[in-house]
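Lecture notes, part 5. Sequence design as translation. It can be helpful to think of inverse folding as translation between two languages: the language of shapes and the language of residues. The source text, in structure tokens, appears below.
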């Protein structure tokens, strides 16, 4: 259980932060940027939820919880030493990826195939979900870059890849099952 009785600690005043294993690294370290962008994705998702109701809101809430799991996963390096932690460190599981895939498939079954790219927008929820999509893509790029230098849970990378797809399809659902999608017209303003 987490207990936060004091919010500021002053331990980061010199530009360093602690990872989940206690190691101290620069606040600009790639790992910190990766899990920080996952946190940013979660914050944009909180904004999207202001416009969501019913099952969509419930799904977004599940994803917000997953994003905290993902941040916990990414902030703890050296997976080979997980057994030394004294507890089982939290890692994203393939079952979480599979849940996203099943939800994408279910939502996509309601939609007609696209014949054009779409522009981010339409309803307020769709616009926010497109923002979530782009921020999660940035988190994915940073995590993939990190994986070229350090060991990363492969399920974490897969989760981020599916998540941006999930947000794309959910944005179409939020646009009246795609009927209110804003279509790109190539060269429209030439």
């Amino acid at each position: 259980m987490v207990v936060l009785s004091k919010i500021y600690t002053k331990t980061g005043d010199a530009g360093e932060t602690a990872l989940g294993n206690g190691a101290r690294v620069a606040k600009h370290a790639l790992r910190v940027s990766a899990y920080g962008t996952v946190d940013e994705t979660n914050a944009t998702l909180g904004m999207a939820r202001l416009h969501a109701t019913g099952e969509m809101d419930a799904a977004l809430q599940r994803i917000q919880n997953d994003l905290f799991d993902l941040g916990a996963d990414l902030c703890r390096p050296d997976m080979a030493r997980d057994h030394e932690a004294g507890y089982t460190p939290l890692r994203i599981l393939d079952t979480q990826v599979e849940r996203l895939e099943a939800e994408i498939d279910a939502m996509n079954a309601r939609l007609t195939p696209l014949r054009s790219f779409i522009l981010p927008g339409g309803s307020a929820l769709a616009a926010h979900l497109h923002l979530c999509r782009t921020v999660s893509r940035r988190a994915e790029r940073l995590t993939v870059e990190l994986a070229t230098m350090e060991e990363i849970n492969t399920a974490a990378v897969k989760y981020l890849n599916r998540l941006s797809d999930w947000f794309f399809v959910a944005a179409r659902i939020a646009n009246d099952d795609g009927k209110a999608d804003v279509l790109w017209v190539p060269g429209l303003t030439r």
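The translated text above is only one of many valid answers, since several sequences can fold into similar shapes. The radius of gyration is 18 Å.
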